[in-house]
Amino acid sequence: MHMTYNDFQLLLYVDTGHYEACKAFYQYVLGLKVFYSWDEGVHDRGLKFRAGGGVIVLLCQEDPFPEYGPVHFQLEVDDVQSVYARVKDILGVEITQEPFRRPYGWEMFRMRDPAGNHVNIYQTH
What we know:
Layout: E1 9-13, H1 16-29, E2 34-39, E3 45-51, E4 54-60, E5 72-76, H2 80-87, E6 94-101, E7 107-112, E8 118-123
């Protein structure tokens, strides 16, 4: 049976101490635009960003599954070297792996957002 899905959302739960830093990371480091937000107080606020046909949701709420640890996700770009050049010298951005090429042709680098989520930026060749 073929299923049709109308939306994809990646939920990133961050604590109050990391919310503003993560907000800046996704807006200014990755250059994503907020299309929806809410603020019901310090423990219930969030932002939604469109990315690659899906949505990244930054949530400052109680994480229902803290035992699962940080999230890993990838974003495909047209020019990985230009993205790397733009973000590598931004104060506070943690690059966890310099650009490298996978045997199957992907060029990529890895970094972490301020809450510890793993973000891979890649380009297919």
